[in-house]
Amino acid sequence: MRKVFIIFFGLIALVASAQEGQFSQYFSTTSLLNPAFTGTIPNMTLNTNYKRAGKEENEQYQELIQATFTYPFRKFTSKFNQVGGAGITFFKESRGAFSLYESTKILLNGAYTMRLSRLSNQYLVFGLQGGIVQQKIGQNLRWGSQFSRYLGFSRNGDNSGYDGSLAGETIGEASVFYPVFNFGVIYTAFDNANFYIRDKTLTVGLSIDNLNRPSFAYDAAGNIQSQKFWLIKTFGSAKMELGPRWYIYPSAFIAYSQGSVQANAGTYFSTFVSSIRSKTAVMLQMGTWYRVGDSFIGMLGFQVENVKVGFSVDLNHATFELERAEAGSFPTYEISMAFNLNTKSPLGNVSSPIF
Questions:
Q1: pTM of the entire structure?
Q2: What is the mean pLDDT of the chain?
Q3: Rounded Cα gap, residues 200 and 203, in angstroms
Q4: Domains of the chain: residue spans and CATH
Q5: What is residue 4's DSSP assignment?
């Protein structure tokens, strides 16, 4: 049994030592990108992303799911002033053939919004995030005790010589649990508080994940084998008017950890496709990103009143791992959705490259 746990925690350290996978539409993941985004969303909002790469039996298979609920805090004076927000985020990643490696986290988000000037729309937002993470190796492992010489070998190698009815080593539900704390700050400025007639915005942010450097891998004696490194993320985006009802969003996102850097840059375009006289506002968005040295990301999306939907394709995808890169030739597909649960107010407050 001692050897089993050494193998188990060794696999955890090997697979999880690199940074977790990321969404292509990271600006739509709000609190996962930067906890301070919790203080920029003016309405009760639910946003979710789903991303999948490869087939389930493929070694580079990856599936990412996140869902975030955000509740704003407001101060009532002559008009609504947002002073912060709170929320909860669920994230799950499955990686490897038949989801061999799984990571699940539940995070609580809190943010404080400070208005820098009464005469202009300039804000500084501080966010803090904390929660629990579970990492584990799946139950699809094969052991020497399951090998049977009577089964022979198939041409494609599937289940070659292994009998699933035979007992294998047991690791039960052994998992690694650890707490995690993240911090973020955002500066944003825009020309008009009305989201629908806003023409110019500037938003920049900085965040640090794994502030507490959590330990996530141990040997059988309980000694620490590996710890999470700081993940520093910074981004910047702007919104500018190209012409009547047309806008451009140049933006960039950079991640750094343990001496490795990942850079992303791109430009999106959006336009209102509904008539000026229409009671229903419909916005269309399209654009592309380039992940330096990795892949191109194309995206199409639309917003109808209080619902947003985005679809993207990540070509020549490689899993984002700051210590090593695993290249794959298959595309990655992702869909994002956001729902404004307060239909009396527009969904957006801080403009980003994705809505």
A1: 0.79
A2: 78
A3: 10
A4: 2-340 (2.40.160)
A5: H
